[in-house]
Design goal:
The complex is a heterodimer of chains A (about 475) and B (about 140). Chain A is of the alpha+beta class and about 475 residues long. Chain A has a single domain, classed as tRNA-splicing ligase RtcB (Alpha-Beta Complex), CATH 3.90.1860.10. Chain A contains 13 helices and 19 strands. In chain A, the strands form four sheets. In chain A, strands 7, 8, 9, 11, 15, 16, 18 and 19 form an eight-stranded mixed beta sheet that branches. The longest helix of chain A is centred in the middle third of the chain and has 36 residues. Chain B has a single domain, classed as Archease domain (Archease, Possible Chaperone, Chain: A, domain 1). Chain B is built from two helices and seven strands; from the N terminus they run E-E-H-E-H-E-E-E-E. In chain B, a hairpin with a 2-residue loop joins strand 4 and strand 5. Classes of the chains: A alpha+beta (about 475), B alpha+beta (about 140).
Chain lengths: ~475, ~140
């Protein structure tokens, strides 16, 4: 990026003006230290500029500190659209893995109680939560069941006996996208997704047993509220809407490509940014189908959470309740959500696309569950499998980013390069020496997810903490890991 | 069959460039590239594929045909639990449409064991292209993994 194109707003914010590229309707805002900015690949700026050309975009095309090149939007890309003034909805601003996200489950167990059982726990979880290429579940849903799941999300899963109603209170949207309409999804969506409920997938998806080291609680009052303490063992996992969600995005990408210019006169820089006005028939159909993807993802994580509870219960010979197992929170980082934000001193309804970015609602926002509302929304940040993960909480600075923050460490190395540079077997052995027990569906997949292929998660988290977008609450260190 | 993986297009996902002297060759090379994103057969001795699967598609142009072909292979992976890696293809142009008949060989996903690498989610339209130069069709494809 040429220095002349970049304006430094403050130590952690840089702006690229509209003049950077023809057709940009808003400038680009990139969050991150100088090092983070300097390490971003050029494609990130091109992709953020493409986003800035979309109809109805408001304020800025944002790139979060964990931003890296993707397709359509960059990963870590955020954009809000004025839906009452032709603002669009785009599958490329959400990603194929609709509502991909992270759940954090707490326990009352401490590290010393788990240390000698870690292999047994990981082996049990690896068996109960299918992972890897085409992982399939023992639950096969009929067409009717799949549609009910796609409209019911976590609520459906709880009704089917996976987990408890208590979980619903600690999940974004209460675990259900109520705008979902299963008549808007194709038969292919059902065929792809019917056997994948309760599965992890592959790539950067993981299920991790972690604990809070001494001095790794940064905000005791908030940590207390979330039920977190030093030495405590927690479980964090990352997965999404699996084949069903991927097919929804594939289907509507093609629909938008065929209608976008002829029906709506929209021209775009990258076909992955195919879109339609939110309040058009095509836009509404996709929004309702995307809602199904959101619910598929919610249900998938709820089934996995119930399996986590089962395995811990079996190993420790106690009910999950007696082990203190409870969902702290669940967030998504691939979704478009209708939200009210203040613009020019009046409140407006906008559609916020977050692709590889998490919602970070400041205290008092209606999206935050009642029990947490005065603290801000919990934000879950997964690091690489070799490093730490974080719990943050939404803060006032998030008003400047449409309540959006980072989602993870962010890659600095391509998957092919990581596979050339790292050996999955060696990584596994080295992690074991550091007392992190790993089981993986694929050693090559493990190499692709090596810690060295990612940015330092601490740097990424420091940026949003410094900007007061999300404040650090606690850091979690891995002790057991399942890689998809 | 000719394809190579591209490192400089995306860090999170997988990109490849495939080529062929005919549309059939281009599609087969692309299908092989997709297969090898998901399976690393160098890790173990490969035996002959045991499953055959046939399907047909049609599209208005070659680019769309390639997109549909790859997307269908991904769909079959999840719906039939099959990874297809050998292709006998026939493309005909009829009444302005390209019609593709696919006769493919592969195996159940579970049979590949620890040779499996990545689960491909979808074919992205980002930088997706098919070009013809000097009697050679060449495609660039970015896959979401």
């Amino acid at each position: 990026m040429e220095a002349k194109s970049v304006k430094k707003i403050d130590e952690f914010t840089r702006e690229i003006p509209k003049s950077f590229r023809k057709g940009m309707k808003v400038p680009i805002r990139i969050l991150g230290s100088k090092r983070i900015f300097d390490e971003m690949d050029e494609q990130v700026f091109t992709q953020a500029a493409n986003v800035a050309t979309l109809p109805g975009i408001i304020n800025y095309s944002y790139v979060m500190p964990d931003g890296h090149s993707g397709y359509g939007f960059p990963i870590g890309g955020v954009a809000a659209f004025d839906v009452d003034d032709g603002g669009v909805i785009s599958p490329g601003g959400i990603g194929f893995d609709i509502n991909c996200g992270v759940r954090l489950i707490k326990t009352d167990l401490i590290y010393d109680e788990v240390r000698d059982k870690i292999k047994e726990l990981v082996t049990g979880l690896f068996k109960e939560v299918p992972s890897g290429v085409g992982a399939s579940s023992k639950y096969k849903l009929s067409d009717t069941e799949f549609k009910e799941m796609a409209e019911g999300g976590t609520v459906w899963a709880v009704e089917k006996g996976f987990g408890t109603k208590k979980d619903l209170k600690h999940i974004e949207l209460g675990g259900r996208a109520d705008w979902a309409d299963s008549s808007k999804i194709s038969n292919k969506v059902i065929s792809r997704g019917r056997s994948q409920i309760g599965t992890l997938g592959s790539g950067n998806h993981y299920l991790e047993i972690q604990y809070i080291k001494k001095n790794d609680i940064f905000d005791k009052k908030t940590a207390d509220k979330f039920g977190l303490f030093e030495n405590q063992v927690v479980i964090m996992f990352h997965t999404g809407s699996r084949g069903g969600g991927h097919q929804i995005a594939t289907d509507y990408l093609q629909t938008f490509l065929s209608s976008m210019t002829s029906k709506y006169g929209i021209k775009i820089e990258d076909r992955e940014l195919a879109c339609a006005p939110f309040y058009s028939n095509d836009g509404q159909d996709y929004y309702k189908a995307m809602g199904c993807g959101v619910n598929i993802s919610f249900a998938n994580r709820q089934v996995i959470a119930s399996k986590v509870n089962e395995v811990f219960s079996r190993v420790f010979k106690k009910d999950p309740e007696k082990l203190g197992m409870e969902t702290v929170y669940e967030v998504a980082h691939n979704r478009a959500t209708l939200e009210k934000h203040r613009l020019d001193s009046r409140e407006k309804q906008v559609l916020v696309h977050r692709k590889g970015a998490t919602a970070s609602y400041y205290p008092g926002r209606p999206e935050i569950p009642a029990a947490y509302r005065k603290f801000g929304s919990p934000v879950l940040i997964g690091g690489s499998m070799e490093t730490s993960s974080f719990l943050l909480v939404g803060s006032e600075g998030a008003k400047s980013t449409f309540c959006s923050t980072v989602h993870g460490a962010g890659r600095v190395m391509s998957r092919s390069q990581a596979r050339r540079e790292y050996d999955g077997k060696v990584i596994k052995e080295n992690m074991l020496k550091r007392r992190i027990y790993v089981d993986s569906a694929s050693l090559s997949g493990l190499a692709e997810e090596a810690g060295g292929a990612y940015k330092q998660v601490d740097d990424v988290v420091e940026t949003v903490d410094n900007l007061d977008i999300s404040r650090k609450v606690a850091r979690f260190s891995p002790i057991g890991n399942i890689k998809g | 069959m000719a394809y190579r993986f591209l490192d400089d297009i995306t860090s999170a996902d997988m990109a490849f460039e495939a080529s062929g002297k005919t549309v059939e060759e281009l599609l087969a090379s692309s299908g092989m590239a997709l297969f090898n994103v998901q399976v690393n057969l160098k890790e173990k001795q490969h035996k002959a594929f045991g499953r055959n699967f046939k399907f047909s598609l049609e599209a208005e142009n070659i680019e769309s045909l390639l997109f549909k072909f790859l997307s269908e292979l991904i769909f079959i992976k999840d719906s039939e639990m099959l990874l297809l890696g050998e292709f006998k293809l026939d493309v005909k142009k009829e009444r302005g449409l390209f019609k593709l008949d696919v006769d493919a060989n592969g195996d159940e996903i579970s049979s590949f064991g620890d040779s499996l690498i990545e689960d491909v989610k979808a074919v992205s339209m980002h930088r997706f292209s098919v070009k013809k130069k000097d009697d050679l069709f060449a495609a660039t494809v970015v896959l979401d993994v």
